[in-house]
Amino acid sequence: MEIIERLESEVRSYSRSFPVLFNKAKDAFLYDAEGNRYIDFFAGAGTLNYGHNNEYMKEKIIDYLRQDGIIHGLDMATTAKSVLLEKLEKIIFKPRNLDYKVQFTGSTGTNAVEAALKLSKMVKKRSNIISFTNGYHGLTMGSMSVTANAYYRDEAFINRSDVSFLPYDGYLGKSVNTASYLRRVLQDNSSGVDIPSAIILETVQGEGGIRVASDKWLQEIESICREFEILLIIDDIQVGNGRTGYFFSFEKSGIKPDIVTISKSFSGFGLPMSIVLFRRELDIWKPGQHTGTFRGNNLAFVTAAVALDYWRDDKFSREIFRKGKILYERLEAIKAKYPQLKAEVRGRGFIYGLAVSPAARAREISTECFQNKLIMELAGAKNHVIKFLAPLIITDEVLNEGLDILDYSIEKVLKKK
Questions:
Q1: What residues does 277 pair with on adjacent strands?
Q2: pLDDT tens, residue by residue, 319-334
Q3: Which fold has domain 58-311?
Q4: What class does CATH assign to 2-53+314-415?
Q5: Contact 286, 68 (CB under 8 A)
Q6: Distance from C-alpha of 410 to C-alpha of 417, rounded to nearest angstrom
Q7: Overall pTM > 0.90
Q8: What are the residue boundaries of the structural domains of the chain, listed by start?
Q9: How far lies 30's CA from each of 103, 262, 273, in Å?
């Protein structure tokens, strides 16, 4: 760790939370340089839904390299890209009655968000964007402007004038319908909120504290977008790719966004890759109008195509929901066992959070979990939500072992008080 601490920028974060030198990884495990095994309930912040070094994908990568396949292709046509697009259309789009065009952007999620915002403004010829409280969409200038958390925004000298933040579902309490509030604001010429080109949201706010929007609220937001001719952008970067039990997180609600941003686990193997999906008629881009040197990561195309095979039928989805039930029930049991935590269980599918009070206790629990070889991170504006992002392929045995460690770690932390 000495060379890391001496040479790497102070901006590093996860190496502070998990201060060991990691050396190997497989499935739901990480191993440090001394051979210690850690259960991974973090999965690269949701990038490794299919586990570390997924065997099926690794075999495809090795075969592809042996054949001297294209690695870097800009946006040139390659066989790896054509195979991916064919599978995406056949396995994902057609069964869901979606007719999206696909834009390959720069390699990280924030690049996809930047492209989505840019396209929205070009299509609608309006500058304003509506985002929501606790929303997180990335940290480049455009995506940071629609990210709510002041820790990231203050003071980055971003343009704050073209974004209006409104309350997310439940932000003002269960009795207040914030979608109705949004409609009223848009109807009132004196509200101070300009009709936007787009509304951007996460159906489950990951970094915002595992806050889940109801189906009814999402349906009403979609209705508002249609009423006022606003584009609806769903940021599915963290909670898409099966994290909620469905390939897209918005499927359960029955809505059909105009634009969807996808990244993180889409490549399946942890390789950098981001795409934007949008309705066919929105494709007003001119050739080369939005580019990115690494928008043609063909190794990521290869593994992404393999990842889509998990979705050929509903078997994988059923397994996610089954494991999600185990996770939910265990968290509810922990909540009941430790009333002093004043805990709240949040989430759906296979993304959950355990909100605890006081906020500092969440960090103590996460640190104790790490000491006991379980890797977990925090979420929420106060970092008070213990976040569960285990790989979707985790076995019941390992899942329960990790939850046993969590239980033990909480007990140990509370005994110190």
A1: 102, 260
A2: 999 999 999 999 999 9
A3: Aspartate Aminotransferase; domain 2 (3.40.640)
A4: alpha beta
A5: no
A6: 11
A7: yes
A8: 2-53+314-415, 58-311
A9: 33, 25, 23
